[in-house]
Amino acid sequence: MMSDSTSPGRVVVSLEDLLAQADALRKSIDALQKLRDEVYESLNSVKSSKDAINLLKTQGKDLMLSADRRGYLLLKVNEIPISKVLVNLGLGYYAEIEPDQASKILDEKEDELNKSLQDITQRLNKALEEYTQIAEFLNRAQQSQRSGE
Description:
With 149 residues, the chain is an alpha+beta fold. The protein is built from two helices and six strands. The longest helix is centred in the C-terminal third of the chain and has 50 residues, at 99-148.
């Protein structure tokens, strides 16, 4: 970037620089959207885990469990002992603990994921705003160039 010596505070940027910045922002936006989707998926898994704990606490005689995420296979099981569950602590570590303690750990994980989601959303919105501004400027420049021809 070069300063325009005729106008203090003005910055002159080439169209190539703007195109490169737009491309970098587009890549950043794509990465943030992918990260946001992964956090959403993790958040949904935590919520499903909490729901499963609550379901097991109030189970009747027979229980239907989904063997996969989409419910293509259901397993009919009789009472499941709920004295202990395994909860993922991260980094491949699991703890065998009581369901109420597991629920607390999952609540903390849910809070952590919600905060991450808010941060990612803010960063994504900022990048989208910058990208939109550059795109609008490039469109105006292209229209000016066409009208000058």
